[in-house]
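Mods, move this if it's the wrong board.
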Amino acid sequence: MGFTYTDVTVCSPAEPERSWEGCFLVDTGSTDTLVPRDRLEDLGLRPYGSATYELADGSSQIAEFTGARLEFMDSDAFVRVVFGPPGCEPLLGVLALESARFEVDPVSQEIRRVKRLRL
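Not the wrong board. Structure tokens:
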């Protein structure tokens, strides 16, 4: 299987003119979205909570999170964003994809718009 990437703009909900754009790995195994801490702090975003996350290697780690507006593929979503280490690869989690009405085709690895929302 290959990797799927998409350009994402992260915006401060309180100051939408403050934003950062990066190339994010689309990670359907990740619930939340991960952004380097320094990028979030540059936008004036501060942690408002923390949670224990399971990493790909099976270990656990406590990480801080905040809320942000993400813009990608002509859509947007307000989601939880995890403070990652400075310089880490940004990850676009499945909740952001679903909130913006997208899914990843498991065969082609392409992102596609969902035609209807599920309740």
